[in-house]
Design goal:
Bound molecules: NADP nicotinamide-adenine-dinucleotide phosphate
Number of strands: 9
Shape: globular
Helix content: 40-55%
CATH superfamily: NAD(P)-binding Rossmann-like Domain
Number of helices: 9
Largest sheet: 7 strands, parallel
Oligomer: single chain
Low-confidence stretches: none
Number of domains: 1
Strand order of the largest sheet: 3-2-1-4-5-6-9
Radius of gyration: 18 Å
Structural class: alpha/beta
CATH architecture: 3-Layer(aba) Sandwich
């Protein structure tokens, strides 16, 4: 028996035609890849990063619509950056660095950045946007596998800030409903963050990490960026944490 199945664009995601997408941390790595994919799906895309030149370059080299520079640990620059935005249909908050330092050794002011870049940056951004956030907007936050699987090498605070983002996302989904709020939790993804954090040690770290991973490779920015676009576009994803880790949590 033949059956006709109607598939709505909202259910399967897909088109972002005419939607305004704003990505903090969209000038590099996962965020830049999400920006490129959102643009290809028809969105008007604004990327925001800390480094002004990198933000301008990321937008111009990838045909993105607009860019801003803001330091998400500085609320004034967030307010300034969003002051000239119009309605935001999809907000993505990925800006952050690999804050690594042992609890008994690192400067507390440095460790505090893990929360400043994530929880407090999200709070300041949402307050700065106010009613610019569309009533049916999606918000995508970032955490990371370290929230579930820490190690002994100085990631306790970053893991805690990441776990906090997941709890924050669930609370926001209730406070901001019917806006949707989700959190992406990546495992190891091969982006510039590794060189920024490890410098010359990046290659040996990646080589030894690959041996331990089920897929014997890191994820790509494209794979993680596609997961961001999925969270934006699937209208029934809400209050969720999406792991994209190649099975790294299993080992
Ligand atoms: N890659 C991974 O394995 C992995 C795993 C778990 C979680 N994550 C998280 O995923 C997010 C994106 O990481 P990624 O791998 O794509 O790293 P990335 O390539 O280094 O990109 C980070 C982005 O965040 C921006 N950023 C950093 N600090 C900022 C600040 N203070 N103010 C404004 N923008 C700032 C960067 O802009 P500038 O370049 O101008 O600084 C850049 O656009 C991060 O929050 C990271 O912690 C990554």
């Amino acid at each position: 028996m033949n059956q006709t199945v109607a598939i709505s664009a909202e259910a399967v995601g897909g088109s972002l035609d005419g939607k305004n997408v704003v990505i903090f941390g969209g000038t590099s790595g996962i965020g830049l890849s999400a920006a490129i994919q959102a643009k290809a799906a028809g969105a008007h895309v604004t990327v925001i990063g800390n480094d002004r030149q990198r933000a301008q370059q990321a937008a111009s080299e990838n045909g993105l619509d607009d860019w801003r520079a803001a330091d998400v640990t500085n609320p004034e620059t967030i307010t300034e950056a969003v002051s000239t935005l119009d309605r935001v249909d999809h907000l993505v908050l990925l800006a952050g660095t690999f804050v690594a330092g042992k609890v008994l050794e690192a400067d507390v002011s440095y460790l505090r950045r893990a929360f400043d870049e994530r929880i407090w940056a999200a709070i300041h951004t949402l307050r700065a946007l106010g009613d610019k956030l569309a009533p049916d907007a999606s918000i995508t936050l970032i955490s990371g596998a370290l929230a579930d699987r820490p190690n002994a090498y100085g990631v306790a605070v970053l893991g805690a800030a990441s776990a906090a983002m997941e709890a924050f996302g669930r609370g926001l989904a209730m406070e901001l409903a019917p806006r949707r709020v989700n959190t992406l939790s990546p495992g190891p993804i091969d982006t510039p963050i590794l060189s920024k954090a490890l410098g010359d040690g990046r290659d040996s770290y990646v080589a030894s990490l690959k041996q331990t991973l089920p897929l014997h490779r890191l994820g790509t920015a494209e794979e993680a960026g596609a997961a961001v676009v999925f969270l934006m576009t699937n209208g029934f994803m809400n209050g969720a944490v999406l792991n994209i880790d190649g099975g790294s949590r299993l080992v």
